Task: inverse folding
């Protein structure tokens, strides 16, 4: 057993060493895999804020992942076709600038989370799970049946979007961008967890009545957490779409919601680095076992079962000592 | 009744045919401990919920510091200064003792939507929290995880969390429940010092504690208050004896 802080450093070191080694031995595919891990981990970090810290078991985070992806797809497709998004009442053009796309993705997914959260947070328990799932599926079917942006076939973007000073088509450079974003978000989420807001969110998760009777508006508290959570997952969606240069309704599918949830459960619920470990393991299994058998989900299921039954707090929890939740 | 802190005015609440609150009126005056007693199923919990929030009366009003709070949420009532402790400890069990009282301080100070600075390094929050812990005598338990506290210590912590709100009135639901004789005696002494700070509406089964502590007692039976008065009044009230104390003797 080691301190969680040191385990986190090892995990970060892995995210630096693996792509660096892949670069040295010229294995661009490994870098792409690592990029996928980093982006999916980011989606998990978003969900973990709601699910882990807040106890809000959202089974519809694909909604934000998807809307982030489609934000990128729609903006970039208009840019590549030189057609404006809309002309009246004012002109909105597409863009292939990553910073702009990220900003729009964050805002749009935050607004969507505000809407879905405002309605679904009036319920709790199983109902909350079902309502969030229902919203996610609504968007999934909407995306399938909306022909303007590819419908069921999805939408391809031919060239990766641009970031000033970076050649985003070079795998290691795009990886660097995604890794930097993950680090920034991890830092912010860590601060958030330790802030009065984070403590209140955790307190309300442990005992809602207690939070209410010290004068905390729990509904508003959770709604804000849900919006931040959705915004982070939305940003991950935009990056994921850029990685694949492709968006499709699958991003909205409930399988995607479940997948993000699996990262968290594997890695460790409410553990800062849990989603990274979970996403990494998932991608490794998918890559290696997926090559052996198309039924690799059976093995994933077995591992998930093992982790849930024997490793309290996921893999991160199983390997490290619990540190004071809000200390230092 | 301008001088009372808490006014319950003719409150009615029915669940189907059951009249849980059937025209209840009571007041809590500055500096007093007002005990609410009554047999099981008399409607004490229903009344507490209507005072603390979480349950709306069908009719009647709850006034706090001269303000009608009937339509306010639990959180709003707490912000106004209604400190509550629960029958079954309502604490964040995974938190340390200090974190639980800091949570109270966060609620009190309205700093819930501060996202960046660490709560456990905030001087103002910590001072308020530690002060509350010291008053209930839990200072040496700061870093203990709450779930590892003894039952009696949890009750103390429960009171400490309420103290962080600097309440104008306390609403205590069976604070003695499950305490041993000594713990009960200690808490009795503490509540006696507390009442000069803010009056206490005390729901309690422990009759020794009630008779030792209360300035006034109200007896609730089948949703109605059948008597309100001093300890001696209640002891000697024939109706109370048959309705409640008699039952207890027979049991």
Result:
């Amino acid at each position: 057993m080691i301190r969680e802080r040191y385990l986190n450093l090892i995990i970060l070191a892995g995210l630096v060493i693996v792509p660096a080694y892949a670069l040295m031995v010229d294995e661009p595919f490994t870098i792409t895999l690592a990029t996928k891990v980093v982006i999916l981990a980011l989606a998990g970090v978003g969900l973990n804020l709601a699910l882990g810290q807040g106890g809000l078991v959202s089974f519809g985070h694909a909604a934000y992942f998807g809307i982030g992806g489609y934000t990128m797809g729609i903006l970039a497709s208009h840019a590549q076709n030189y057609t404006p998004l809309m002309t009246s009442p004012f002109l909105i053009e597409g863009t292939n600038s990553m910073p702009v796309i990220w900003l729009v993705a964050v805002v749009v997914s935050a607004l969507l989370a505000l809407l879905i959260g405002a309605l679904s947070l009036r319920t709790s328990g199983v109902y909350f799970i079902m309502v969030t799932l229902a919203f996610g599926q609504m968007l999934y079917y909407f995306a399938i049946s909306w022909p303007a942006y590819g419908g069921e076939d999805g939408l391809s973007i031919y060239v990766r979007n641009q970031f000033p000073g970076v050649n985003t088509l070079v795998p290691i450079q795009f990886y660097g961008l995604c890794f930097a974003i993950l680090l920034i978000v991890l830092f912010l989420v860590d601060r958030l967890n330790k802030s009065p807001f984070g403590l209140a969110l955790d307190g309300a998760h442990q005992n809602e009545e207690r939070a209410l009777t010290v004068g905390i508006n729990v509904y508003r508290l959770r709604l804000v957490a849900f919006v931040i959570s959705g915004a982070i997952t939305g940003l991950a969606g935009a990056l994921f779409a850029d990685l694949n240069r492709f968006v499709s309704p699958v991003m909205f599918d409930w399988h995607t919601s479940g997948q993000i949830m699996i990262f968290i459960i594997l890695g460790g619920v409410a553990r800062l680095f849990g989603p990274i470990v979970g996403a990494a393991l998932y991608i490794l299994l998918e890559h290696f076992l997926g090559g052996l058998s198309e039924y690799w989900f059976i093995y994933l299921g077995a591992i998930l079962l093992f982790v849930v039954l024997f490793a309290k707090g996921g893999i991160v929890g199983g390997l490290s000592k619990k540190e004071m939740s809000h200390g230092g | 009744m301008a001088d009372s802190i808490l006014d319950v005015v003719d409150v009615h609440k029915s669940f189907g045919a059951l009249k849980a609150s059937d025209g209840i009126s009571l007041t809590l005056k500055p500096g007093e401990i007002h005990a609410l007693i009554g047999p099981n199923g008399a409607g004490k919990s229903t009344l507490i919920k209507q005072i603390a929030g979480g349950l709306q009366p069908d009719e009647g009003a709850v006034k706090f510091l001269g303000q009608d709070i009937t339509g306010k949420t639990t959180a709003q009532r707490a912000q106004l200064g209604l400190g509550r402790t629960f029958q079954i400890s309502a604490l964040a069990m995974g938190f340390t003792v200090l974190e639980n009282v800091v949570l109270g301080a966060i609620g009190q100070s309205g700093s819930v939507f501060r996202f960046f600075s660490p709560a456990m390094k905030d001087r103002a929050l910590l001072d308020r929290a530690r002060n509350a812990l010291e008053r209930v005598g839990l200072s040496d338990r700061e870093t203990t995880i709450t779930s590892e506290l003894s039952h009696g210590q949890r009750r103390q912590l429960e009171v400490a969390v309420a103290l962080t709100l600097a309440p104008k009135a306390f609403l205590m639901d069976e604070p003695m429940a499950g305490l041993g004789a000594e713990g009960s005696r200690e808490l009795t002494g503490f509540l006696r010092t507390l009442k000069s700070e803010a009056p206490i509406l005390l729901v309690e089964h422990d009759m020794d504690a009630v008779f030792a502590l209360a300035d006034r007692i109200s007896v609730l039976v089948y949703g109605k208050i059948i008597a309100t008065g001093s300890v001696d009044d209640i002891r000697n009230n024939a109706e109370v004896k048959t309705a409640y104390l008699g039952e207890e003797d027979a049991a």
Remarks:
- Residues 114 and 227 of chain A are 5 Å apart (CA to CA).
